[in-house]
Amino acid sequence: MPDKNSAVPESTIAGQDLNGDLALRVIVATAAMQWTPSPSAGVWRKRVHRVGPAESGQVTSVVRYDANSSFPVHEHPEGEEILVLEGVFTDERGDWPVGSFLLNPEGFRHAPSSRDGCVIFVKLRQYPGRNRRQVAIDSTALDWNLGESAGIEVKPLYSQSGFDDVMQLERWTAGFGPVRREYPGGVELFVLAGEISDEAGRYSAGDWLRLPAGGSHRLQSTQGCTVYVKTGGHRYLRQSNSAKHRGTEEIRI
User: Fold this and answer.
1) Does residue 16 have a pLDDT over 90?
2) In a domain, 149, yes or no
3) Residue 153 lies in a domain
4) Which residues make Cβ contacts (< 8 Å) with residue 55, sequence separation at least 6?
5) Any idea what the CATH number is for the domain that residue 55 is in?
6) Number of structural domains, the chain?
7) What is the mean pLDDT of residues 21-29?
């Protein structure tokens, strides 16, 4: 694993969209990536998806705030989603510890920071619609509910009439599966703990997986796992202008 403080200048990928071809299956092992500096000192990121300008495009990333670091006040056109993975994330509305899920709708404005440091999973400019509701959930306080099968439990995070995207946490019992899933509107998975696998490979904590609209796979978990799952979100993602559709080809980073 790279040193926690190692960094690769973001200019090495400046001007290029990252994983912007929505027709492809993409797998990114964020635990093996180096942290890259953001425009604010002490704030680092690992981007797994970006379409558009480097600092104002659609982005999915893991972000790390060092202790006593902050971002200046800024707005979020097309909204923002945050899941706190480590530490405590702070903004004007309060302190958000591990497990906090935030959905800030279009036009939201804040100045985020962290006193002791934190790591968050972030999605930017993927939530158009000013009538989306603002969400702030302590997922650790939610009960696990029975999922589609006895070996899967879920914690709903967000769904709203009139919008296609649905986000939830899933907990899989060790040894459960395989279960076939089909995704008419595409899917993103981010492994939070344990491991989960499908026909193409095995995924552990920090792995991000995106399947295109119409994709499917057979999932199972030998050790058990907790996974963030987002379905239906592809409708709100922009396609990279440079994307070359290559059928079922896979990108693995």
Assistant:
1) no
2) no
3) no
4) 39
5) 2.60.120.10
6) 1
7) 96
Which pLDDT value is given to residue 72? 79
Q: Which residue has the higher pLDDT, 208 or 52?
A: 208
Range of the domain at 125: 33-137
Can you give the pLDDT at residue 61? Answer: 96
Q: Is 94 domain-assigned?
A: yes
In a domain, 59, yes or no: yes
Helix (H) or strand (E) holding 50: strand 43-51
- Between these two residues, 174 and 14, which has the higher pLDDT value? 174
Tokens 């994983």, located at residue: 19
Average pLDDT over residues 29-37: 97
C-alpha dihedral sign at 163, 209, 136, 128 = negative
DSSP state string for 153-208? EEEEEE--TT---EEEEEEEPTTEEEEEEEETT-EEEEEEEEEEEETTEEEETTEE
Q: Which residues, including other chains, have CB under 8 Å from residue 64's CB and lie 6 or more apart?
A: 35, 43, 44, 45, 117, 118, 119
Mean pLDDT of 56-78: 87
Residues facing 118 on adjacent strands: 65, 87
Q: For residue 245, which amino acid is it? A: H
Whole-angstrom distance, CA of residue 119 vs CA of residue 29: 16
Q: Which has the higher per-residue pLDDT, 47 or 55?
A: 47
Nearest CA among 133, 142, 139 for reference residue 160: 133
pLDDT, position 9: 35
Please say whether the beta carbons of 206 and 225 come within 8 A: no
Where do runs of H (alpha helix) occur along the chain? none
Contact 220, 177 (CB under 8 A): yes
- Determine which of 61-65, 137-141, 203-207, 249-253 has the lowest per-residue pLDDT on average: 249-253
Spatial distance between the Cα atoms of 101 and 158, rounded to a whole number of angstroms: 9
